[in-house]
Amino acid sequence: MLNLQQANLSDISELCELENSVFDEFNFPLSKANFRYHIQKNYLIKAVYDEQIWGYILVLIKFKVPRIYSLAVSNKARGKGVGKALMQKVCDDFVRLRLEVRADNQNAISLYEKFGFKTQKIIKNYYPDSCDALEMTKAQDAF
Asked: What is the pTM of this model?
């Protein structure tokens, strides 16, 4: 059974392995130091199955509208509802949210739309490879 729980400092190496398997240098991968900081200062939930981290979601909480900074699902867990479970947890815990997503990541965009996110604007050349980003937001009344 998939278990969602707050990440802790002992998870850093496994989170970093997941991060590097999912995101290349054009997608702002987090380092061990980044994970250490976010575990201590922000909202970082991990999805654990069979004692392995299958995914995580990171929300930056120090903004007026909390920002989903990163959502990662391991390749072996794709299509198994891990991203959906993480999004449900975050949407249950926060009234309003915002995020940026690669304009060419249709799977992620579809997931966010299922949770009531709407595109607010396109940010040109947001990523280092010049890919645009969509800025998306969700309000409480979106459900």
From this structure: 0.92
